[in-house]
Specification:
The chain is mainly alpha-helical. The chain has 2 domains: 60 residues, no CATH class; 32 residues. Helix content is 51%, strand content 0%. It is built from 3 helices and no strands. The longest helix is centred in the C-terminal third of the chain and has 23 residues. The two termini are 25 Å apart.
Length: 98
């Protein structure tokens, strides 16, 4: 749960958004993002919220070195799927080990 106070700043928002992306994208957990206009302590929050809602891509959410790692993983996955399609694979199943 994110609690916003008068001291809540941009770094806090970025950290909380990174945590939310990690839960939703990596851990495959359900997340809910509830944000009211009364919780906007910095006008720049609106830029992040707009990016989140319009594309899901928040430009400076991660440090450049982290983005390089994410791009490499994304490129690897694209190449892997391209290879599998070329090999005639029609279905891919993902299993989670618990």
């Amino acid at each position: 749960m994110i609690v916003i106070s008068g001291q809540y700043g941009m770094n806090d928002l970025k950290t909380d958004l990174q945590t939310m992306y990690n839960k939703a994208g990596v851990k495959d957990e359900g997340v809910m993002f509830l944000f009211t206009d009364g919780q906007i302590t910095n006008e720049r929050f609106l830029v992040y919220i707009n990016d989140l809602l319009s594309s899901g891509d928040i430009s400076d959410l991660y440090a450049p070195e982290d983005k390089d790692v994410l791009r490499s993983i994304k490129q690897f996955i694209r190449l892997l799927f391209k290879y599998l399609v070329e090999q005639g694979v029609k279905k891919i199943f993902f299993f989670e080990k618990k």
